[in-house]
Amino acid sequence: MGYSADRSWSRGSRDAPLFEAFLPLGRSAVVPVEHVDAATGQPCAADRALRLLVVGRDWVGAMRCAEEALEDEACRSREVCVARALSTLIYGGELVTADAHSLLNADRPEVSGVVALLQARIARLFGDVDRAHALLGPLMSAGTPLETRLVAAGWAVELLAECGDVTAARALAREHRLDEALDAGVACRPVLLAARGAMAMADGRPGFAVAQYLGCGRELMARGVANPAVTPWRSEAALAAFSAGRDELAVALARQEYEAAVLWGESRTVGRALCALAVVDADGQEVERLSEAGQLLELAQAWPELARAQYELGIRLAARGDVVAARQRLHCSHALARQTGNPRRVQLAERALAAVAAPPRRPALTRQQARIAELVVAGYSNKEIATKLFLALRTVEFHLSNTYEKLGVTGRDELRAALEHDA
Fold first, then answer.
1. Long-range pairs for 377-380 at CB < 8 Å and ≥24 separation?
2. 11 pLDDT band (50/70/90 cuts)?
3. I want to staple 406 with a disulfide (CB 3.0 to 4.6 A). Which of 159, 277, 286, 363 is the partner?
């Protein structure tokens, strides 16, 4: 399904809300404040939430304003205010709260369109690919306002590309004429540029991907959007630049993203930026950075991003020779990739696991050998063990000698280390 030949691309068309006012994509100087508080004459809570979000320096204030807006009946009746408040919660990492509010507002005709769009974003961030596609599908139909349709198509293309389905991503982009929309200067250009960047990366064209992500960043910065939670364009551009062999650019972008993410302070945003920095900046801190990124992403329940971080950590642990830890991380990445419906990352994890051979299994100890070994580790002498187990001293020594041989150790300290490693 494409657009009819006579359908014109128009910036800020009146069949949809002004998307530069809330996706959030920032605000241009010509976009007026949509709603003021009747009591104070000041911008409403939703408008204040968006302003705090795009600047990206006051997470607490942004979340407070967003929740205030969704409790205010006047804000809740306006699509632009609901979108601003929900977007602020979503990009602030408060997905459960945002989802609860979206369900409360889903049946209200005056806001149902944008709520469905943002529910799709919530599903994507939760790692529920099937639900995200199910929500985006109806929003790409002919009866949907143009800007809503373009954003839905852009997000769907990006998701398909991230999951490795480049053919379907290309077909969807052609069907909705996303290149023409970009050339026409539609309001949602940042969304479409990010989608084209993801498609280029999946298609093995990192140089072109860099240009798309940098273009996305220029658009966002021109609209006053400094917060990397909105779109992690620097991180994605850094990874693309690294793949294209432009290491200095990659490191500079990743460091800028991390600094901006720390200012916002939300776990998913910081963890994602730290993961990208670890990948592109080979300064010897990669494993430590990826471990910290994993902790932050797990705290945020950012399962798609955690799958990537665990994969990258597994690769680097394997390079250090820590095969056991590497395989643990790669297995975790594989499980998360399956859970979040990402076949591309499943394949990457499977290939890495195949390349990182499992360490040879130690011969199993007999019950008597295992019991004696446990007592040795607990600090008992051979004589004390013999007394405790009603065995001859020579029998204990015989079993302990066989245990050392099976485990490839030469004394009590090495035995303790070997048993702790296997625990």
1. 377/412, 377/415, 377/416, 377/419
2. very low
3. 363
